[in-house]
Amino acid sequence: MAGLNETPKANRVHIAFFGLRNAGKSTLVNAFAGQDIAIVSDVAGTTTDPVSKAMELLPLGPCILTDTAGLDDVGELGAMRVRKSFAVLSTADIAVWVVGDEDDTDSHGTESFRMFSSECAKHGVSMIEYRRNEPVEDFKKRIAAIKVSEQTKPLVGDLVSEGDVVLLVCPQDGSAPKGRLILPQQQVIREILDAGGIAQVCQPGSIRKVAAAPTSCKFAITDSQAFAEVNAALPEGMPLTSFSILFARAKGDLETYCKGLDALKNLNDNDTVLVAEGCSHHRQCGDIGTVKLPKAIAKLTGKKLNFRFCSGGDFPFDEFKPKLVVQCGGCMLTRREMLRRISMAQVAVVPITNYGLVLAAANGIEADPFTCMVHR
Predict the structure, then answer these.
(1) CA distance 173 to 11
(2) Three-state SS for 323?
(3) CA–CA separation, 292 vs 223, rounded Å?
(4) Number of other CB atoms surrounding residue 140 within 10 Å
(5) Which of 124, 157, 248, 297 is the most buried (most CB within 10 A)?
(6) For residues 10 and 336, what is the distance between their CA atoms, to the nearest angstrom?
(7) Which residues have C-beta within 8 Å of that of residue 287, sequence separation ≥ 6?
């Protein structure tokens, strides 16, 4: 339960440290965090995989520090380490280039630095340089002064006014984590409370009792998997949306996702559909990504499709070359990463849509991209 009081990783500013081997990246990360989170030695290539640590950096706020392997690593394994290091830039907000001692070879003249600069520009990541002789506290102040763009938009904060009652339908079935609500539910409840609203939480079987209370609900939010049951139980005229659709609006581009939904009718037999989930969890019977979504898409299209799946930070778009991407709400991903995925699809002229929109459509419900509510 300890994680419930922490700022979600996806809502933190991501600061990643890059440089050549033995430039002092791990030493800087440890000094920055005020604790030993990365192994330090004089042996080149000590850091082999990205290592991350959550912390608070005022006035910047909650952040994630990530140490990476040297970008001049060699050999087959070294090339793999370099690729993993560059992959960090897909979620980084600030990239620090660590320069070693002044008598070291100028790292700016290396192929590694040129690739680093190019990748930062491609991902829109802010670059900043650190040299070993700069006091760490002074460097922290420089980092904290950076204006980070593309922060997550509100989930419901702009939809709720003081005193509004919002009904949250949270099925606690076999796929729900034991003893706690899932992250999207937690975050939505917190935003409702911060806006001065009132969150009423129930399972699908209690909807009629809650919705019939004297204080009417402004709108309802459901887990997308329960659209059919919730839609049937809600009073006529009560607006409805889902957690996935709210996250699609906050983290991605809901209008683009709604347009991508139209591509379902253009799919042909044997076309590839990439189902992308931002979190990595144990797959349960009836899993939404690998079971329920393919069934919903098959129902909507009537086609025999080739489904491919990915989770966590993995997004093998170029490998699978899909005809359609179905992306989760992205509660575990940064807005930068969600927009990167949308951009990759758009550049390749491949439609991209959202879990909640597909499940709503499978139940004859259409979402409005501007209000984020569904037409019942």
Answers:
(1) 27
(2) coil
(3) 13
(4) 15
(5) 248
(6) 10
(7) 175
The DSSP bridge pattern shows strands 61-67 and 13-19 to be parallel
Residue-level pLDDT at 278: 86
- Residue 1 pLDDT more than 50? no
| Torsion 115-118-123-125 (CA) sign | positive
Output the pTM of the full model. Answer: 0.77
b vs e for 331-359, b when ≥16 Cβ sit within 10 Å of the residue's Cβ?
bbbbbbbbbbbbeebeeeebbbbbbbbbb
Angle of helix 25-33 versus helix 136-144 axis, rounded to 10: 80
What is the tens place of the pLDDT at every residue in 208-217?
Answer: 888 777 668 8
Distance CA 273, CA 289 (A): 12
| Closest by CA position to 267, among listed 309, 319, 326 | 326
CB hemisphere CA count around 355 (13 angstroms): 28
What are the Cα distances from residue 158, in Å, to 79, 198, 220? 46, 14, 15
Span 256-299, pLDDT tens digits: 999 999 999 999 999 999 999 988 655 555 688 889 999 999 99
> Confidence class of residue 312 from pLDDT cuts 50, 70 and 90?
confident
Longest dimension (CA), the chain: 75
Domains, the chain: 2-144 (3.40.50.300), 165-246 (3.40.50.11420), 253-367 (3.40.50.11410)
